[in-house]
Design goal:
With 182 residues, the protein is α+β, with helices and mostly antiparallel strands. The protein has six helices and five strands. The strands form two sheets. A three-stranded mixed beta sheet has the order 1-5-4. It has a two-stranded antiparallel ribbon with strand order 2-3. The chain is globular, with a radius of gyration of 17 Å.
Length: 182
């Protein structure tokens, strides 16, 4: 999808592509320092997106992130609850959040190893995270091809976490375009 957006931009489409992941400077890092767990990272993402979106009168702003960042309810990942990026982004304006559903396969993700236990208030640090192609089971089911469903309340877990879903079918891992700097 990102490569297709770049091609559209290169062919003259009025598209801007902006990186927004993580704190952009020490001042932003300090401003969100007291938020619990992954909260500082999520808050920085939301603020970076809001600032990029405010630079021009865009018709739409589409943000590509993993499901955790797209959630619209507070959540916990082995530690204290924090507000995901999409929930924080709502303070800046209207947001429609879609959770990806798929038929299973592999995805390239960065995550805490399954046996990780965090103490209350313990921050997740980069040395705790493992990035690789991980196998995953199906998330949902569909007898249709790729599609978007807004406001589907048939799955209460999805309804609490997202405004709708997008179904993509089977998935395959796509490693980073550039090797890690580490």
């Amino acid at each position: 999808m990102v490569l297709a957006a770049h091609k559209l931009k290169d062919s003259g489409a009025e598209i801007d592509i902006v990186a927004f992941n993580g704190a952009r400077d020490d001042a932003q890092r300090e401003r969100f320092r007291e938020l619990p767990s992954q909260g500082p990272h999520e808050a920085a993402q939301a603020e970076n997106i809001a600032e990029a979106a405010g630079r021009k009168p865009y018709d739409r702003v589409i943000v590509l992130v993993g499901n955790l960042h797209a959630e619209i309810a507070p959540l916990s990942v082995g530690g204290p609850e924090f507000e995901p990026m999409a929930l924080r982004l709502r303070q800046y304006g209207s947001v429609v959040s879609l959770g990806m559903r798929h038929a299973g396969g592999e995805s390239w993700t960065c995550q805490l190893p399954p046996d990780t236990k965090l103490a209350p208030g313990q921050r997740v640090t980069s040395d705790m995270i493992e990035c690789a192609a991980f196998r995953g089971g199906a998330e949902g089911a569909s007898d249709r091809g790729p599609h978007i469903a807004l406001g589907d309340r048939s799955d209460p877990q999805v309804a609490r976490r997202f405004d709708g879903i997008f179904w993509v079918g089977p998935i395959t891992a796509s490693p980073p375009a550039f090797p890690s700097a580490e």
